[in-house]
Amino acid sequence: MCASSRSSNVLSKFQIPPFPSPPISPDLAYPASLTILSKQNPDWEVEPFDFLINGELVRMSLENFLLAKGISAETILEIEYIRAVVPRKEEEPSLHDDWVSAVDGSSPRFFLTGCYDGLGRVWKAAGVCTHILEGHSEPVSSVSIINPEGADSVTVATASKDRTLRLWKFNAEDTRRNPLKISAFKILRGHRASVQSVAAQTSGNMICSGSWDCTINLWQTNDPVSEGDTVSTKKRKTTGHAKESQSEGEAVSSLVGHTQCVSSVKWPERETIYSASWDHSIRRWNAETGKDSLNIFCGKALNCLDIGGESSALVAAGGSDPILKIWDPRKPGTSAPVYQFSSHTSWVTACKWHEKSWFHLISASHDGKVMLWDLRTAWPLFVIDAHKDKALCADWWRGDTVLSGGADSKLCMTSGASVL
Amino acid sequence: MFEVQPYVDWFKWDDSKHPLSNAPEPKRRFIPSKSESKLVNKIKLAIRKGLIKPKKPKEEEEEEESVYPLWGDDSNSAGKNDHLSYIPAPKPKLPGHEESFNPSLEYIPTQEEINSYQLMYEEDRPKFIPKRFTSMRSIPAYENAVKECFERCLDLYLCPRVRKKRLNIDPESLKPKLPNRNDLKPYPVSCYLEYRGHGDAVTSISVEASGQWIASGSLDGTVRIWGVETGRCLKHWKIGEAVKYVSWNPNPEHSILAVSTGQDVLLLNTGRGNEEVQKSTKELLSVEMPMPDDSGKTASSVSWLQDDQLEGIRLRHSKTVTSVEWHRKGDYLSTVMPADILFAHIYTYFYIIYYFKHDTDGFRAIFIHKLSKKFTQTLSFKLQGPAVTSVFHPTRSFFFISTKKIIRVYDLVKEGKLVKKLETALREISSIAVHPSGDHIIVGSGEGKLCWFDMDLSSKPYKTLKLHQKDINNVSFHRSYPLFATCSDDCTAYVFHGMVYSDLNQNPLIVPLEILRGHSSTNGRGVMDCKFHPRQPWLFTAGADSVVRLYCH
């Protein structure tokens, strides 16, 4: 028996976890001392556990598991005990005026949502809205926090179907009863069709955006002085009515190569941009040279993309079919996905790796469900069925909370799903 | 009594020592005959000239015939002869113990068994029931002897044995060899998205050129624009009259939607696209002044009016318009007014007047409008019957007009010269679609049949497929994938692989792929329209159950 480091001081009793209920067979042996401990103090809480054999979660009785894997019953099994990832609490949904199209929870202090009414919203907690980002004339399609770890002043970017991106600055610390309406300090024009996705560089100096005009544009976020000069006089005339505080920016460079709508972009490293497109491909771009170094063809139109997992190298993507696929671009010469998760029943609209964990990711789908996946099992760890309509976006917040927004104008929060 | 005279043999049995004549042998007998040598010479010359061909010696055949299997099976050797041959009778079963006159007791059926034979059908009864006789003397005469003799004679007379020629062919090999469906992926398979919001049957849909939006028109008098990937209704117009047809302008520089409702064709600004597109669209969609009537015939039948409420142009026709089709460049659009069957049924009086008028100034059923100049042109083709639909050729200046049975192809540049006439042999054409190459046409008909025309091949259909139980409402080609689809009132849509080869010798390959179900029948109507996504192998279907569905691969 090899218990994980955490289970050394576990003072808990085993029970069948309430969620997808792996039926633990009675012939699963565990130390007798643990049972004695559990009887000693009635105040100790019940803690569900999951069991790992050979790096795979046991989702059936031990006997069936051995039969399914073809393991001889004579061998000594090493069973690892880990705390089961189970959501503890479903918090009040944060109500929006329209469909919630995007959510970003990369900052522990707040999270940001984009909505089909053209507004972005900043939330301190469930139902506590502190700022409203006002300015887009059409639905916001994607949001991104540019410097999540920064000081009081935070910069965020929003992309909209009105073909612009906007940058906003606000003080994350101020708390007030009524949400403060703020306007963008910079408007980024340049896309010829609606912008679908925005992602920020890790340093926060640049952002990239994917659009329906098949291009990925790169933009500078801070140096307002030089940007103001580059705006052409013609542009200024047309936007003369804009506030003085609003400057306009133009794309630094444009990555051309996709033949259809670029539906999702990610900028996980300083030099590397990943993009997923409706032309059935995932590409990796070098941000400096603007050349694509990798092209994964997957056969379906893609809607979402995220980079994470083992050493932040795995590519998860979902699209116009119910299957969430994960590729390992380090494996040369293959475009076959290494993992496929297919419990959804409709298009996958969002997928997001956990920041710290190698194994956990969430996905949202048009069937209204948000699922948490563990790479070590083919079944979802849990299913959040809180949305009455399509789920459009999902993200982690503070490492243990799952945020998901949908076409029922709600942002659902499920907290306590501690992964580590 | 008389005495028998002894026989006297008068004939001399041994040869006479001297012949009757002692004359010497004539010389003639030693000289070759002249007449014979003449004959031989003649034959010799004839052989040399090749007039006579000597017979080949038939050594092999003689040898074969000389040896033949006497005890071999008759049936095999008889096959070689082409003359009437002997057909051996089937070998009868050899008699066994039960047919003996005194069989063992176990062969004799009991009385119960004999009674049970009586309950059986006559064909199932055993032909022979064993009986026991103590001696040969007590065996009676065979009771069926006369009957069987008669039947045998009848057989010989009426149905002699005939050698049946049976073809030994595997029925599977006769099926046409179609490629596996899995090799022809991708094609639409399952429905993942539904676009809900209309209050009545959706009659027509149209996909924007980039594939980001679709427009749908419904009998509830609204036109809606939907975002394809989310299923969100982005915009809707209340037109007030049942919408028959919607068609998105194929030019991405204009965001114009043509809508046919009642007698009007509306050109609406969809509000999609960037500022430049919006600017050019607004310029296009403004009519400076209502066209004066002095421009002649064209203005009297179609008038261009500004519609301030819907922010578009209203093209008022004299009769109801059923279909609107854009030219590929997005500047021309054609509208079809089928002959007024309504008139014919309701006001017989007007009907006569109408046809009288028609005879005088030509059959005005099809108009071509030029958007940039706000000009309408009448096409005075002589169609025998009312026009049903019209389509522009995707690459050339051809124009397809279909009446109920015949499709005519005109060249618009050469002043409307008839190029081709396609005879469908269908009862009622409901819809046509042109392959993106322009050389192939599919035609859907009211009786559920689909015709594929190869324009280069002939004016007869290359293939006619009986598909649907009910009327085909629409047919559609994919712009880039080799796919086409039909949709019908039986609530299904069929997806086909339709591969067209650039090699002229190779016929198009048509493979049925999938039957798409999901719509429910409403008022006897099923799927009203189907359109492919321009870039993805996806199919949109509009149902009479007021839902638009998207089938993905």
Automatic annotation (TrEMBL), chain A:
Subcellular location: Nucleus, Nucleolus; Nucleus, Nucleoplasm
Region (Disordered) location: 225-252
One Pfam family linked to the record: WD40
Main location: nucleus
Ranges in coiled-coil conformation: none
Entry annotated with the keyword Coiled coil: no
WD repeats (start-end): 133-178, 188-220, 255-295, 341-377
SMART domains: WD40
A GO CC annotation given for this chain: nucleoplasm
InterPro entries attached to this UniProt entry: WD40/YVTN_repeat-like_dom_sf (IPR015943), WD40_PAC1 (IPR020472), WD40_repeat_CS (IPR019775), WD40_repeat_dom_sf (IPR036322), WD40_rpt (IPR001680), WDR12/Ytm1 (IPR028599)
Keyword hit for Oxidoreductase: no
Alphabetized UniProt keyword annotations: Nucleus, Repeat, Ribosome biogenesis, rRNA processing, WD repeat
Molecular function in Gene Ontology: ribonucleoprotein complex binding
GO biological process: maturation of 5.8S rRNA from tricistronic rRNA transcript (SSU-rRNA, 5.8S rRNA, LSU-rRNA); maturation of LSU-rRNA from tricistronic rRNA transcript (SSU-rRNA, 5.8S rRNA, LSU-rRNA)
Taxonomic superkingdom: Eukaryota
Protein task: Required for maturation of ribosomal RNAs and formation of the large ribosomal subunit.
HAMAP family from the UniProt entry: WDR12
Record family assignment: Belongs to the WD repeat WDR12/YTM1 family.
Protein name: Ribosome biogenesis protein WDR12 homolog
UniProtKB/TrEMBL annotation, chain B:
A Pfam family it matches: BOP1NT
An annotated GO cellular component: preribosome, large subunit precursor
InterPro entries according to UniProt: BOP1/Erb1, BOP1_N_dom, WD40/YVTN_repeat-like_dom_sf, WD40_repeat_dom_sf, WD40_rpt
BOP1 N-terminal domain location: 1-188
Coiled-coil residue windows: none
Stored Gene3D superfamilies: YVTN repeat-like/Quinoprotein amine dehydrogenase
Location of region: Disordered: 52-74
Organism per entry: Prunus yedoensis var. nudiflora
Cellular localisation: Nucleus, Nucleolus
UniProt WD repeat ranges: 195-236
Protein name: Ribosome biogenesis protein BOP1 homolog
PROSITE patterns: WD_REPEATS_2, WD_REPEATS_REGION
GO BP of this protein: maturation of LSU-rRNA from tricistronic rRNA transcript (SSU-rRNA, 5.8S rRNA, LSU-rRNA)
GO molecular-function term, one example from the UniProt record: ribonucleoprotein complex binding
Broad class of the protein's primary localization: nucleus
Keywords linked to the UniProt accession: Nucleus, Repeat, Ribosome biogenesis, rRNA processing, WD repeat
Signal sequence, renumbered to the chain: none
